[in-house]
């Protein structure tokens, strides 16, 4: 079982990284000017702009 790649508000960050908002099905949903945040390991993810979005590590979000 691999590491989780998408996170919901309230989840804890697994690593220090920059995370960005993605659509629920990120490769189908284009988000203009997505919100980006920098979190340290263990910090909680904030609310997203809308309920259909999730957080994803920036380097992973850009490959889909």
Return the structural class: mainly beta
Mean pLDDT: 85
The major β-sheet equals:
4 strands, antiparallel
Structure summary, number of beta strands? 4
- Which spans have pLDDT < 50 for at least 5 consecutive residues? none
Beta fraction of the residues?
25-35%
Radius of gyration: 11 Å
Overall outline = globular
- Helix fraction, binned, reads under 10%
The run of helices and strands is EEEEH
Main-sheet strand order equals 1-4-2-3
Instruction: Please give the alpha-carbon distance between the first and last residues.
Output: 20 Å
Our count of helices gives 1
Describe the 3D structure.
The two termini are 20 Å apart. Helix content is 6%, strand content 28%. It has a four-stranded antiparallel beta sheet. The protein has one helix and four strands, in the order ββββα. With 64 residues, the chain is mostly beta strands. Residues 53-64 have a biased composition (Basic residues). Residues 31-52 have a biased composition (Basic and acidic residues). It comes from Paenibacillus profundus. Residues 31-64 are annotated as: Disordered.
